[in-house]
Amino acid sequence: MEDRDVQVYKDELLRKIDEFGHQIIEGTSDPDHFLTIFEIEKLWSELRGDTSILYSDMLADLLAAADESELIRKKKQNSGKKGSF
Fold first, then answer.
1. Is residue 30 part of a domain?
2. Taking the model in full, what pTM does it have?
3. pLDDT tens digits, residue range 70-81?
4. Domain annotation covers residue 8
5. Average pLDDT of the segment spanning 60-72
6. pLDDT in tens, 19-57
7. CA-CA distance, 40 to 48, in Å (whole number)?
8. Per residue in 60-74, is it b (16+ CB within 10 Å) or e — as a string?
9. Is residue 35 one of the residues assigned to a domain?
């Protein structure tokens, strides 16, 4: 995975944070149409869920892109050795 791929996740995280902030600001700017505690909790829950999914996807992509060839080579070298007790 390249830096530009990680940047896609950064951009999406920032977009979600900005959207959340905008919704909170908009929802608390008019006393006659103020967000309820339930609505705030719902927005917060959605942000946490969305960002959690993004972090999970990013980790999966990073691990999928990892070069395991050296690790496999080392494992093969050590698999023939028997431990002494």
1. yes
2. 0.73
3. 878 887 888 766
4. no
5. 87
6. 999 999 999 999 999 999 999 999 999 999 999 999 999
7. 12
8. eeeeeeeeeeeeeee
9. yes
DSSP letters, the chain, are --HHHHHHHHHHHHHHHHHHHHHHHHHTS-GGGPPPHHHHHHHHHHHHHHHHHHHHHHHHHHHHTS--HHHHHHHHHHHT-----
How far apart, in whole angstroms, are the C-alpha atoms of residue 40 and residue 26? 12
Domain count, the chain: 1
Owning domain of residue 26:
20-50
Contacts of residue 27, defined as CB under 8 A and 6 or more positions apart, other chains included, come to 33, 34, 35, 39, 40, 43
Indicate whether 46 belongs to any domain.
yes
